[in-house]
């Protein structure tokens, strides 16, 4: 049987406990900014090769906010260093797919071609979940748009 002393030993650290103790990890702390985004693909993702010969997949997510009569959209450009079947899966996602993305976020400053100082938000995908795919829409012979899933009942 467990006694009161056992429960005292098992209690969670208090607010006055040292923040330098990290029992869950043996790695050093890292300063990382993260973003979680739920949005729809603006277009089919594209593969690109960067300077060191590595390839990455680039895509943009759109998120909407505001009241329906005054709705606005924010666009986020994301890069993924996926390989193999994960890369093939990402490249196969159609425009309009609803995604949940966890990404590492960095702000970088640069000078554009006109000499103006600019800042850019760089998002590197760390996790991706497909929440839903867009409905397929097909035109019949008269040009009427129909959803083929409606025929299934």
TrEMBL record:
Record-level Gene Ontology MF annotations: single-stranded DNA binding
Superkingdom of origin: Eukaryota
Keywords: DNA-binding
Pfam family, one: SSB
Entry protein name: Nucleic acid-binding protein
């Amino acid at each position: 049987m467990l006694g009161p002393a056992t429960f005292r030993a098992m209690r969670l650290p208090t607010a006055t406990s040292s923040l330098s103790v990290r029992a869950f990890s043996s790695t050093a702390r890292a300063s990382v900014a993260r973003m979680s985004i739920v949005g729809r693909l603006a277009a089919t993702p594209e593969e690109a090769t960067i300077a060191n010969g590595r390839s990455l997949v680039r895509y943009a997510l759109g998120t909407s906010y505001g009241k329906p009569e005054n709705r606005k959209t924010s666009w986020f450009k994301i890069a993924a260093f996926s390989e193999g079947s994960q890369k093939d899966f990402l490249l196969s996602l159609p425009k309009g797919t609803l995604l949940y993305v966890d990404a590492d976020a960095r702000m970088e400053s640069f000078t554009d071609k006109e000499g103006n100082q600019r800042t850019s938000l760089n998002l590197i995908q760390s996790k991706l979940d497909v929440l839903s795919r867009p409905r397929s829409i097909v035109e019949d012979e008269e040009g009427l748009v129909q959803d083929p899933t409606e025929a299934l009942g």
